[in-house]
Amino acid sequence: KSLRNIAAGKDPLEGQRHCCSIAQLHEHYSLGYPDLDELQKNPQPLIFDIEVLKVEAPGSYQQDPWAMTDEEKLQAVPLIHKEGNELYRQGKVQEAAAKYYDAIACLKNLQMKEQPGSPDWIELDQKITPLLLNYCQCKLQCEEYYEVLDHCSSILNKYEDNVKAYFKRGKAHAAVWNVAEAQADFAKVLALDPSLRPVVSKELRSLEARLREKDAEDKIRFKGIFSQ
Questions:
Q1: Which of 81, 131, 161, 210 is the most buried (most CB within 10 A)?
Q2: Where are the alpha helices (DSSP H) in 90-178?
C-alpha cells in the first residue's frame, strides 16, 4: 500500500499508523485494495517488476518529500518554492502547482507531528499559507475552481484577514456563478485593503458582463418555450 501511495505522489504513511498490515486489516476491515486484502488472507511470494524511467547525472537527483528526513524537508521547502515561482513565471502553471504541492506536503508532514495550535504548529501553518495561495493561483488558471474554494475557505477559517484568500475565492465563486458569494468576498477585500479597489472593480465589471451575456443567451435558448 505504501508503494502505491508513493507511485501516486502521496505520503507512504497517509491514512496509516505504524503497525503490520494484518493489524491494519483488522482495524479498518480493508487495506483499501481488494487484491491486498486477498493477499493477507492467502499469503504468497511477490515478484516486483522494476522499470528504469530515466538516468540522472550525479548530484542532480532531488528526493521526493516522502523520502526526506525532517531536516531535509525544512531545507528543501524554500528551494522547491523558488522552483515553483520560476516555473510560474515561465507560464508552466501545472508544473508550478506540482512544486507548490510538494513544498506544502513537506510542511504538512512536519505539522502533523506537532500539537495543533502550538507555537511550532502555527509557525509551520504560516509557512504553508503562502504556498497554498500560490497553489490556488495555479488552480485558478487551470479552471479548477472548486479546489480553490476549498483551500481558500480553509485558510479563511484560520486567518480571517487574509486579503489574498478572499480575492482568489471571490474569483472562483464568480467563475462558478456564485454571484452573491463572489460579491461578498470582493466587498471583504475592499474592507481590508481599499487600495485594491481598481482590481476589484475590474473583477466586478467582468462578472456583470458575463451575467449580461448569460441572460441574453438564456433568453434566446428559452425563447418561446412557455408560449407553446
A1: 131
A2: 93-111, 119-141, 145-158, 163-175
